[in-house]
Amino acid sequence: MKKIISLVIVMAMFAAPVAFATPSAWTEEKNYGDRVSGKLQFGLANTLLGWIDLFAEPNKFANEGKNVWSGVGKGMVDSVVNTVGGAIHLVTFPVPADLPLPDGGVDLGGK
Predict the structure, then answer these.
(1) Among residues 3, 33, 65, 105, which is most buried (max CB within 10 A)?
(2) What DSSP state is assigned to residue 80?
(3) Spacing of C-alpha 49 from chain mean position
(4) What does the alpha-carbon distance between residue 12 and residue 101 come to, in Å, rounded to a whole number?
(5) DSSP state of 64
(6) Going by C-beta distance under 8 Å and a sequence separation of 6 or more, which residues neighbour residue 46?
(7) What's the angle, vertex CA 6, arms to CA 58 and CA 16, rounded to 5?
(8) How far is CA 34 from CA 40, 41, 54, 92, in A?
(9) Residue 49 CB partners (closer than 8 Å, separation 6+)
(10) CA atoms within a 13 Å half-sphere pointing along the CA-CB vector of 8
């Protein structure tokens, strides 16, 4: 029973950032082909580049004058959520249903 409760708590910690996430940019596309293509690109980018948040979040927190250690924690969680979420997007790209990622996923410079 203790293992199940521990697992639920850990899963809740990883699910919390998704609950406050913004919708993915590819959901704005008008037709099915563009949405599927956008979801595939989004999933590939987040799967391969999700680890960037390990460094980007602490840097962003430092530039904003916030606690850098909070940025380290957020970066660790976001990198795992973005990588796993990107893999889920890759596997399910034919179905244009969104799984929002924290801060809209990996930022590829305005895309």
Answers:
(1) 105
(2) H
(3) 10
(4) 15
(5) T
(6) 82, 83, 85, 86, 89, 101, 105, 106
(7) 40
(8) 10, 10, 30, 15
(9) 82, 106, 108
(10) 5
Core vs surface per residue 78-102: b (16+ CB within 10 A) or e:
bbbbbbbbbbebbeebeebeebbbb
pLDDT in tens, the chain (111 residues): 788 888 777 777 666 655 556 677 888 888 998 999 989 999 999 999 999 989 988 888 888 888 888 888 888 998 999 999 999 999 998 988 888 888 888 877 654
pTM comes to 0.72
Residue 44: both structure tokens together: 């590939």
Tokens of 88: 């889920």
